[in-house]
């Protein structure tokens, strides 16, 4: 049967992007351990509203680990301690009665706080915008079976494409680097035959846009560790290889030697 | 008002081609003179925005999410249907059309469904060209599976994340147009109203969710691709923010709302565990291929499942439907689960579920095989419930999943407000009274890629040279003031109960009276109780904070206000439809075997409801459905 937990929460509250933030202490009482982490916050918020306090703003939407909206630092770890688990899929039975839980927003210079635990992750869209696609306007496609793709290739592309864009990788990285996010998209598209025509243009554009916003990768590996979809760090190596190649290939394509 | 469906003439197979030839075109050089506003960035919205941008139109996209890639299409698991006949198993456009009309219990518009089946094949080509990593066979060709009781394998999939991969494909295609300057995306921007000027859609009024600014946007046409209204039930498989506001606001401005009582309850979801439950999680329907559904025969059987001997188990689907067994369609499986739980035979701590038991399949095929097939689902189940489905049976119960009803549209996908279009789940047209599995993704992309981009030209062509209405026009100013007024009202009510509280209470009423089974007295009660609760809501809602910063309670209050009005209309529609069909089951109208009993003589029509002002019941308009191709029969799964 389900237990009830009494917890102490240390939650980052910040009224707006330019306001000064601080930790607030809340008691979370009688939390059923069947509740998800976000439902625990719902319960705390209902209590706050009843007492006339503004509720904690936190990012969430699908609550089944696929939309990538949610994500907070839980005791210093992106999405908490459970491996391969987004915040929305973390359940309170993983905590003990009497625990103190520290909850903070994603920490990265590229992600300014909007309010409380909600941050602005729009730089990730900028990376996609400059090349994270295969140019195939509607109506131009040949029959889907005209281009056989070996199963292993499709599976590997899918491993990379599983990224949900939550940005836990950035939050977990000591350098706030977005290499795992960018390389996952690049490997998804660069590994497929359809993606070859734009491969090096895409790589150069996405990597350089990434570097405008984010730090550099120094191979800590925290990104893969925090990733709710357990995306492999290997993709970063593939990206680096393609990026170096792109510097030569793109010059040649431009008619230079 | 006479509803003109604008279905073209000709044989069913020629209608769409004839229509494409007959409708007016906008010359390529003139497309840049038009601005189109697309609300929503899911499959239907992103694919439309990308395609319209490619054609040369200026497009602005509005989403309340922080990025367009979060739209709830992303959560679809199973797959997408297409009449490719790659399996050589007898599939065809006609068969997909036929299955969809029959599956919808003969309450959809034939011509729309045929067109959907026609363009389904192009969708797969388009998405594969864009790099969607569909499942493949070792030979490199696309893999298929059968789904939702279909007798052919026509479902394409990308692991258990087909919706995610298709949405990311459409999102990426749209972002390319953003880069090229043809599409502008407004994130964290919620549409609050449609602006109508001289009987036409002139634009929309939005709220910036970060700053609270109310802004007007004007265009030559407005496309609502804003999804379904399943969250009127509070607990559903929809995402938390999914809502009816955009569609409902259009309804209040003149768009008829069709068949709101057609809601789909999906049979295999994880049961609610407590009052705090915020949403329900779907477990893919494919589990019914190997799991056996049962409940204990005895009431209040407190024993563990493994301690209940075979003779004391009630395999109710296998017994009642020997030929389809556990694979009966969604509506039948759901209703039977409700029946046994209502009889007090439910399992789990709250007695609100039935067992889905894999022990026979594990014994037969081995644990490895089952893990290979369903590993990710079993893991998800374990995370949520803390129980290991390899050793104890899963507990499942039906949950609201999809809404077939929606904004009424004609064959061009235009609503009854000229210039305002509705696509994807937001419209009503293709699924009748029940949607087949793997057809939602198909419809969203069909509308966005291959239908709307053509049909919108027919509306725009005569407007060449006209500037969009100025945002300084009194129509915009008044709509902004109305939106502002509602926000101020919420912030100044100073009541005692949160919008979340009211939403939960509303959801209970909708589930109890307009859920899997409806009957006259219950529906009448629903109308009066929803209306009473709505009055309490307006008098006693508590929204703290201010308008000028991110305020999710304030957002929620606006959405709940619209759910109240929709809930009432659902009850009216369900009361008016004195027959059972698909997801709409009136207990008074069932066959002796307890199946849905249609009344084709009196109800073979679309009920399209017309707004008549606040606190005034909507008026019903009727679009008769003509079935020229498919013969109406009683569905049977015995």
How would you characterize this protein structure?
The complex is a heterodimer of chains A (257) and B (638). Chain A has 257 residues and is an alpha+beta fold. Chain A has helices spanning 37-50, 123-129, 151-161, 168-172, 179-190, 199-213, 222-226, 234-253, and strands at 4-13, 22-32, 73-74, 77-78, 100-104, 113-115, 118-119. Chain A has two domains: 4-115, Ubiquitin-like (UB roll), CATH 3.10.20.30; 121-253, Fumarate Reductase Iron-sulfur Protein, Chain B, domain 2 (Orthogonal Bundle). Chain A is 35% helix and 14% strand. In chain A, helix 2 runs antiparallel to helix 6 (199-213), helix 3 (151-161) runs antiparallel to helix 5 and helix 5 (179-190) crosses helix 8 (234-253). Chain A is elongated. Chain B has a domain at 268-400: Flavocytochrome C3, Chain A, domain 1 (Alpha-Beta Complex), CATH 3.90.700. Chain B is α+β, with helices and mostly antiparallel strands and 638 residues long. Chain B contains 16 helices and 19 strands. In chain B, the strands form five sheets. In chain B, strands 5-2-1-9-17 form a five-stranded parallel β-sheet, with helices on both faces. A five-stranded antiparallel β-sheet of chain B has the order 11-15-14-12-13. At the A-B interface, helix 1, helix 2 and helix 3 of A face helix 2, helix 4, helix 5, helix 10 and helix 11 of B.
């Amino acid at each position: 049967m389900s237990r009830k937990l009494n917890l102490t929460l240390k939650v980052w509250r910040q009224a707006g992007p330019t306001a000064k933030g601080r930790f607030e202490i809340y008691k979370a009482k009688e939390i059923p351990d069947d509740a998800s982490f976000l439902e625990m916050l719902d319960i705390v918020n209902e209590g706050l509203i009843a007492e006339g306090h503004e509720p904690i703003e936190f990012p969430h939407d699908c609550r089944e680990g696929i939309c990538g909206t949610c994500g907070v630092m839980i005791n210093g770890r992106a999405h908490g301690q459970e491996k391969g688990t987004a915040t929305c899929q973390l359940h309170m039975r993983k905590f003990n009665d009497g625990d103190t839980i520290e909850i903070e927003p994603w920490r990265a210079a590229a992600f300014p706080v909007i309010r409380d635990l909600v941050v602005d992750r729009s730089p990730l869209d900028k990376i996609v915008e400059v090349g994270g696609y295969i140019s195939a306007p509607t109506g131009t496609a040949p029959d889907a079976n005209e281009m056989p793709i070996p199963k292993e290739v499709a599976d590997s592309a899918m491993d990379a494409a599983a990224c949900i864009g939550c940005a836990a990788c950035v939050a977990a990285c000591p350098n706030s680097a977005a290499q795992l996010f960018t390389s996952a998209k690049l490997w998804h598209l660069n590994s497929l035959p359809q993606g070859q025509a734009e491969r090096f243009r895409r790589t150069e554009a996405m990597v350089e846009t990434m570097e405008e916003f984010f730090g550099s990768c120094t191979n800590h590996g925290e990104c893969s560790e925090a990733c709710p979809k357990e995306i492999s760090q290997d993709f970063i190596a593939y990206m680096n290889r393609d990026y170096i190649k792109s510097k030569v290939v793109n010059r040649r394509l431009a008619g230079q030697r | 008002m006479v509803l003109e469906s604008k279905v073209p003439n000709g044989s069913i197979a020629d209608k769409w081609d004839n229509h494409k030839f007959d409708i007016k075109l906008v010359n390529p050089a003139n497309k840049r003179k038009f601005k189109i506003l697309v609300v929503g960035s899911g499959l239907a919205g992103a694919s439309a925005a990308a395609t319209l941008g490619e054609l040369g139109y200026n497009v602005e996209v509005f989403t309340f999410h922080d990025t367009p890639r979060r739209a709830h299409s992303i959560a679809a698991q199973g797959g997408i249907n297409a009449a490719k006949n790659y399996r050589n198993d007898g599939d065809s456009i006609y068969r997909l059309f036929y299955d969809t009309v029959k599956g919808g219990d003969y309450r959809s518009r034939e011509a729309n469904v045929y067109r959907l089946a026609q363009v389904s094949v192009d969708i797969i080509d388009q998405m594969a060209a864009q790099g969607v990593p569909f499942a493949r066979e070792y030979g490199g060709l696309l893999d298929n599976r059968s789904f939702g009781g279909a007798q052919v394998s026509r479902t394409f999939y990308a692991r258990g994340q087909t919706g995610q991969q298709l949405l990311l494909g459409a999102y990426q295609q749209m972002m390319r147009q953003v880069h090229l300057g043809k599409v502008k995306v407004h994130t964290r921007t919620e549409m609050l109203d449609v602006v109508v000027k001289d009987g036409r859609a002139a634009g929309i009024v939005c709220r910036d969710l970060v700053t609270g600014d109310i802004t007007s946007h004007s265009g030559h046409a407005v496309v609502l691709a804003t999804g379904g209204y399943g969250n009127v039930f509070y607990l559903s498989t929809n995402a938390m923010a999914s809502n009816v506001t955009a569609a409902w606001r259009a309804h209040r401005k003149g768009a008829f709302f069709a068949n709101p009582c057609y809601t789909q309850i999906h049979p295999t979801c994880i049961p609610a565990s407590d009052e705090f439950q915020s949403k329900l999680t779907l477990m893919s329907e494919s589990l019914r291929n190997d799991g056996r559904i049962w409940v204990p025969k005895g009431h209040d059987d407190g024993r563990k499942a493994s301690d209940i001997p075979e003779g004391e188990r009630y395999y109710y689907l296998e017994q009642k439907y020997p030929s389809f067994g556990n694979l009966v369609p969604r509506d039948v499986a759901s209703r039977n689960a409700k029946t046994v739980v209502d009889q007090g035979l439910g399992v789990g701590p709250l007695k609100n579920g039935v067992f889905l038991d894999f022990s026979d399949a594990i014994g037969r095929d081995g644990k490895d095989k089952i893990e290979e097939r369903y590993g990710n689902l079993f893991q998800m189940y374990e995370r949520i419930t803390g129980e290991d489905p390899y050793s104890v049976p899963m507990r499942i119960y039906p949950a609201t999943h999809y809404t077939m009803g929606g904004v009424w549209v004609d064959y061009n996908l235009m609503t009854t407000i000229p210039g305002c279009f509705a696509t994807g789940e937001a419209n009503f047209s293709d699924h009748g009274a029940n949607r087949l599995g793997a057809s939602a993704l198909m419809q969203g992309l069909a509308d966005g890629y291959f239908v709307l981009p053509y049909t919108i030209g027919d509306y725009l062509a005569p407007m060449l040279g006209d500037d969009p209405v100025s945002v300084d026009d009194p129509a915009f100013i008044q709509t902004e003031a109305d939106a502002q007024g509602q926000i101020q009202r919420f912030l100044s009510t100073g009541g005692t109960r949160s919008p979340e509280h009211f939403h939960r209470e509303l959801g209970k009423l909708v589930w109890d009276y307009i859920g899997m089974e409806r009957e006259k007295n219950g529906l009448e009660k629903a109308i009066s109780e929803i209306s009473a609760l709505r009055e309490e809501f307006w008098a006693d809602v508590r929204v703290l904070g201010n308008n000028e910063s991110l305020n999710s309670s304030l957002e929620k209050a606006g959405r709940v206000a619209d759910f109240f009005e929709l809930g009432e209309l659902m009850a009216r529609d369900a009361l008016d439809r004195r027959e059972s069909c698909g997801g709409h089951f009136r207990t008074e109208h069932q066959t002796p075997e307890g199946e849905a009993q249609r009344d084709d003589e009196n109800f073979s029509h679309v009920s399209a409801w017309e707004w008549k002002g606040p606190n005034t019941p909507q008026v019903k308009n009727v679009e008769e459905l003509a079935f020229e191709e498919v013969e109406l029969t009683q569905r049977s799964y015995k």
